[in-house]
Amino acid sequence: MTRQKIEIKKIDNISARQVTFSKRRRGLFKKAHELSTLCDAEIALMVFSNTGKLFDYSSSSMQQVIQRHNLHSQELGLSEHPSIELQLELSNQTMLSKELAEKTRELRQLKGEELQEMTIKDLQKLEKLLVGGITRVSQAKEDRVLKDISSLKRKEVQLMEENWRLKQAQHLTPENGHSSECITIVCSSLADIPQDYDTSDTSLKLGLPFPD
Amino acid sequence: MTRQKIEIKKIDNISARQVTFSKRRRGLFKKAHELSTLCDAEIALMVFSNTGKLFDYSSSSMQQVIQRHNLHSQELGLSEHPSIELQLELSNQTMLSKELAEKTRELRQLKGEELQEMTIKDLQKLEKLLVGGITRVSQAKEDRVLKDISSLKRKEVQLMEENWRLKQAQHLTPENGHSSECITIVCSSLADIPQDYDTSDTSLKLGLPFPD
DNA sequence: GGAGCTATGTATAAAAT
DNA sequence: TATTTTATACATAGCTC
Fold it and tell me: What's the confidence (pLDDT) of residue B48?
């Protein structure tokens, strides 16, 4: 329940931000559509999530609205000066390069590589960021591992039941003893779930010799 | 008062339509702005009234968002005959954008934010990277702190020597007792190097009341 | 990561100004 | 026609599943 009015500033909590994004985005698109219908307006709406995903809406066609917009904003779309587009691209590229340089630096710092001109305070912030990251990554790994283990255990139970049924069947037609033995061996090896999964590679164990 | 829920279809009454347009348009723009702020999204919104008037909003720059949108929808042909230079810049930009997206993703993963489609092996690699980073960052911080401390200690020794010389000088001309006392107090406070530098801000202690 | 719930905040239809 | 008011419809924060 919306127990309090929220302040309009970036939501820190990642999952809360994601939930709010998808809810409010839907609301926004609905309102845009309603406005275009009620008031016979031509509307284009583009939304990029902070993960870079694109969502867009247009009451007619996106290109059409963009071109109409270009007409309004100082005839930029008419290429009176053929170099205007080029200039735009160039400035855009400059910006991209800057962003790229910034991200690269940030990455190097997170990897502990470019720390000489940081203050003690900066280093503390970096440390906190890394601790947060490692906490989440470890948790994710843990979750994944536990999931894999329980799925393996389920398979083990299935195979043991299958095995038992096959054995029962062989008691009725006892002329073939080889395959029974073979299956028994394979199933017992499956029971060896690694307990030291933190250092071993559990994912390699997932390729079972049996199809689902 | 909104005495009845309205149906979403074109409003026939012209003045009612105009009123609704200006109210809902403002609401829509507000919502767009809130979404961009709350969720760190890049948004462009263009609205043409049925009288042809343009209203637009962009969280950054309209041109930038339109270009980003063009990149996504792969319709790069804004003009009929893009020049060779423009084509070059565009491909260059595409490359830059890809790199940027890649770095952004990597950063997010280091911060533990986008882990859903990583394998256990990937997660382990990430963990190692983070551990390496945190080791180096902590070491750098430690080094910095120790350097600050030893520099402070050197200063302390210098000041104590100076202090001692001043005292000696005063024994030769004993008519002024105040300044001696004052300097003694300051020097004893310098001896209090913080042992809990991990949580206190050592750098603040560097601004000594004495010039070098 | 989505779907549904509910209490509360916000937007707005209609009327007044 | 724009703004303000007010009663009501709608959106959504926080929560559960």
Answer: 92
